[in-house]
Amino acid sequence: MKPADIALFDLDHTLIPIDSDYEWGQFLCRVGAVDAQEFARRNADFFAQYQAGTLDAVEYLEFALGTLARFPRSQLDALHAQFMQEVIQPALLPVAYDLLKKHQDQGDLIAIITATNRFVTAPIARALGVEHLLAAEPETDTNNNITGKLIGVPSSGAGKVIHLQNWLALQEKQLSDFGSSYFYSDSHNDIPLLEAVTHPVATNPNDKLRAHALAKTWPLLQLFEKQ
Question: What is the pLDDT of residue 227?
């Protein structure tokens, strides 16, 4: 019997043509939930660092989760529902559903693995029809309010490999147990996990990943028109 396959997907700029974490920050500014000038400045600085590959993931996550900790969970959930309707739903495009369906129809184990925190991304994964989500994990208190602290390591760079290994270990599996392993990503920050799978796919790649993929003769996939 042929071993099962696994298909892993980055989220931002891979399955959706936007950065959900950045857009969440912009949304909070627009609705007046945060000091727009100061938050937008810090959010833009962190986003530029991410694009350049110089982001300190822990520093950023402490900033992002600290922002979430200012609000009771009921208010956060209401804000996120509005965010899904206004920002995310228009970014859920048929080509992404088609790519996921291809692997679903093949019976592959499918997971989204993202550097963005679970609060922001869990509703997006559900909207895409993906059950398994590996993301930065915010600590919550007994009332399910976010404390501002990160559980474990960031799910970025080499941290994505660690999160994947830990998740598979809970199922008494490892990556080599799968007949084929796929990972779709747009970013050079994800090269550690792209190198770990049997079928890396540079998807809507940034310039650094495109160059690396061409050198490695990895397939290139352009799902969206370049933004």
Answer: 44
Averaged pLDDT in 10-residue chunks for the chain of 227 residues:
85 97 91 88 82 81 90 96 98 97 96 96 98 96 94 93 97 95 96 98 96 97 78
Give the phi and the psi of residue 150 in degrees, each rounded to 5: -95, 135
CB atoms within 10 A of CB 125: 21
Distance CA 152, CA 150 (A): 6
Instruction: Give the end-to-end CA distance of the chain in Å, rounded to a whole number.
Output: 43
Alpha helix positions (H), 139-187: 158-170
pLDDT at 57: 83
Neighbours of 13 (CB within 10 A): 21
Contact present, 52 and 125 (Cβ < 8 Å): no
Phi/psi of residue 73, nearest 5 degrees: -60, -35
Q: What is the pLDDT of residue 2?
A: 59
Q: At what angle do helices 20-30 and 57-68 cross, to 10 degrees?
A: 40
Catalytic residue set: 10, 12
The pair of structure tokens assigned to 57 is 């993931």
Q: 32, exposed or middle or buried, with CB in 10 Å at 0-12, 13-18, 19+? A: exposed
Which of 25, 6, 2 is CA-nearest to residue 171?
6
